[in-house]
Amino acid sequence: MDKQALRDKQLAFFLARVVSDEAKREWRAHVKEATHTLLESKLGEIASAESLDRAVVAALSKESFARAIRPISKSIHAETVRALRLEKTKIGGYVPKSAREKIDALLARPKLMQEKLLRQVLEQDAMEETMRDVLFDALKEFNEKVNPFVADWGLPGIMKKLGPFGFGPVSKAVDGVRAEFDKRMEPEMRKFLQTFSRKALTKTGDLMSKNSGSPKFIELRKAVVAWIYEQEIRELLGGGDDEGATLMHGAVLDVIEHSNLLDYVQKRRRSELDDFFARHAADPVRKVMADYGGSPAIDTDALADATWPALSRLLTSEPVRAQFAKLLDEFWSTVDDV
Fold this sequence. Notes:
Structural class: mainly alpha
Mean pLDDT: 87
Distance between the termini: 8 Å
Helix content: over 70%
Number of strands: 0
Largest sheet: none
Strand content: under 5%
Radius of gyration: 38 Å
């Protein structure tokens, strides 16, 4: 067999062997050994603060957002939201007992309410206008029920006692006074509420801040969360539409992209990476993870099976095949004729 034929046979064997069933089985062993090697390697030997920082900057660059992150995440987000709008499962179905116990403990913690946020909400004009309307309706209803001109215990009751002879003339006089009273009452109530509604909101904020840790307020928070548990996901998303979901998704990405490109954010990230590597560069990766409470139990077989299709496709791609052929040609160029 001449050299060229032998070279072609070698190449065919090699290309078939690296993607064979035997190679797939061997890949499991390689992944297991590689995982062990990485975990036992010193952090500084397999990574650096500079390289990681460059990778983050590249991944979050404007070009990455424009060409990959935005279009891909937009598609995933849209499909997810559409699916959730049809989801009949209750929120509580995703919250196990252990999580509910932790949430209840969190809701019972003191000073859970952010007073500054509460004050900011209550100080808005819309809240004052709402309080003014509510109080006006309450005063109006109260006036109608206790107004001596209309209440049974007031003038109407007294006039009934006068009998048929005095009721008519007096009734007309009372109706006139009542009309004038009502005419003057509404503007006075509105004038009063112009200042009192603000005081009412301030008092509301004072009471909510003061009593936020009381048993009743704790029960209020728990009752709201319990109600959420009982709601179907589709019901909670029923008020949204595709346009709103798109706006929310776009706003979130705008914030992420903008914040990660800020100079002081990048400097802070690099400083934190430098500090992290200064502490752990000489430590094995397994120890670094243990220092932060991690104890990895990696299913290397599952990892190997998940990565094999991509590896197999790579090994059978034309560029890789061409590279194998090139290396083999280089070898045979050093061999005398056989």
